[in-house]
């Protein structure tokens, strides 16, 4: 009698990791396809449960278990808006931890770091170092919150800061609370970069040309126009992932010129009659406002949280490989280097110049005190690196504005932007920022005020969002901790804004990064 052959076990062959299904976008990139319209609790493997598998024999059970692993490896069908495949932030989802590090570092280090020694001149050693350390740890915690909340609801990705605010605070209130500060941090920073980049290009030309130069130099406004034109040319890159190379250049130049500035400052002889006592005024109330403005400067040095969700949305995400993992890896690397830039600038700059630090910051002090002691080549290289960093930062901070323009266009026409329409939006945004900078050349003096107004984006709103979306147990440590941090951020925002208004009223306390000659 013939023996029956043993039952063969059927298995699904191993497949390489695949991200969410994709479609081709207008710029040739690939982006996840919108999901099917199912219930909120459905997942590709929800039908394969232990209860379902229990009556089935071993071979079939193994087949279904393998199928479950395969579906989980392929990824979850996140419910995405099909319009996202046409927009520059979510058009390409090929990002990784390296891109996240480049973008976060480019957004986190910039011209605002150069004025940190000014805050130390008003606060002194103890309060200055303590405030900077607390602010750094606080914003690192809120960044972690934003990374975790990106996919807080299964099957939903919050690709923009305003979307997450709407999910936490409601449709209308979320827009009211988050729209103004995020728009300012995007458009306002782009305008400030035009002012600073143009003025730095003028100083670079003066250093290279020298005192014996006979050519007719450009005016300050003409240098603004040169910088704007260069920024518009670079802005033609289609989406956020495509500017990863520019973000790398911005990150490298920021680290380089930050290191050069504080090393050059501490290596030179300190000015005579230097003092490290905090600057104060005769009236106690004025001294309080002065300290509030200094704390506002420290808060203003930590920016980039309005771009965290946008950066994370450029990454693929699956059940087993969620986007928060590479995002947090890149963010940790970026903020390590950010700390290596901010703390030496603040401490080294205050040590080198003390209470004689000019309102423009450490770069202005270096040019004012040591322009004749340092070789023209090193000074010119420092200013050139600042220009490169401003050009790179302009791209990443302008991307949310480009995204908003194209979102309005695609929602009305139900089709993606053509190359000409996309280019037109970016040219329009660049020149609008230029005209605002020319019409309001004192915009940089508003840094303390606007830094206070936008502080909740970094320090307050993420804490509230965590409580409202994650809903930790009421009266638990997590619940108390986030509510207290959030309301402290709101109170500090009001206090720093008042200090910024007071500093604007007093001409001697206006914050100017450079003074055009």
Automatic annotation (TrEMBL):
The chain crosses the membrane at residues 114-141, 173-196, 243-264, 333-354, 374-398, 419-440, 446-468, 480-505. Residues 94-505 form the Amino acid transporter transmembrane domain. GO terms for biological process: amino acid transport; auxin-activated signaling pathway. Residues 1-42 are annotated as: Disordered. The keyword Cell inner membrane does not apply. GO terms for molecular function: symporter activity. Belongs to the amino acid/polyamine transporter 2 family. Amino acid/auxin permease (AAAP) (TC 2.A.18.1) subfamily. This is Amino acid transporter transmembrane domain-containing protein. It comes from Vigna angularis var. angularis. The lineage of its organism: Eukaryota, Viridiplantae, Streptophyta, Embryophyta, Tracheophyta. The gene is Vigan.05G036300.
